[in-house]
Amino acid sequence: MPDYTTDIVIDGFLKCGAETELDLSRYPKLKTLTIGSLSYENVNVTKFIGMSELESVVIGDSCFCGLHSRHSSPGGEFVLKNCPKLKTLKIGCDSFTVFTVCEIENVDALETIEIGRMDARETMDFRRMERDVICFSNASLELKGLVATNESRLDMPSLKSLLFGDKAFLKCHQALFESSFFSPDSLQRLACIGVLSDGRICV
How far apart are CA 5 and CA 22, in angstroms? Predict the structure, then answer.
């Protein structure tokens, strides 16, 4: 029987036992998800698929990070697709460290994507400042739409800001931004593509 919860807030330090997959499709009415830092360390498959009411996903630092082992074999999938009302996706530093797939597809309302450390002051403690804090270090990035509408010839017509923190996708060998009806006018809606390190790159 589906759970009709609309908002989930996890304060942090959530241990998930032996579970290795988080699939939130059983919450068809979920609107907001907030996951605090240091949660779901064992999980290597995270899915947000076909969630028609989902509007916001915010994930803290050091979540879904493979038992905190940087020497673990790369592996893991983050899949976000067919969520038509989603506006915000924010992922903190050191999360999804060894994941090899980051797929974001068919989310026409999405306005903001932030992945990684946006500011050095946001690190949780001084120990993190002494080492790299990396998100999706081994992953390729796929950002694509499936359906264009009569109102817009850009498959993700609402996307305004795409920001990657320092060292996010560090070993990425492919970044795919796909639109079936791409044109130079499409970029007018995208205010900023940024890679944050010593500065910000925008187009």
Answer: 16
Residues 6+ apart with CB under 8 A from 8: 27, 30, 32, 33, 34
Taken as a whole, the chain contains a residue count of 203
Tell me if 114 sits within 8 A of 91, measured CB to CB: yes
**Closest by Cα among 165, 154, 166, 164 to 190:** 154
Confidence of residue 153 (pLDDT cuts 50, 70, 90): very low
Contact 81, 107 (CB under 8 A): yes
- Would you say 72 and 48 are in contact if contact means Cβ atoms under 8 Å apart? no
Report helix, strand or coil for 95. Answer: coil
E strands, the chain, are: 7-10, 21-23, 32-35, 45-49, 56-59, 77-81, 88-91, 101-105, 112-115, 140-144, 161-164, 175-178, 192-195
Q: Taking Cα atoms as reference points, which of 57, 61, 23 lies closest to residue 39?
A: 61
Residues 56 and 86 sit within 8 Å (Cβ to Cβ):
yes
Task: Note the pTM of the prediction, 2 decimals.
Answer: 0.80
Alpha helix (H) ranges present in the chain? Answer: 126-129
Distances (CA, A) of 196 to 115, 147, 176, 200: 10, 31, 19, 5
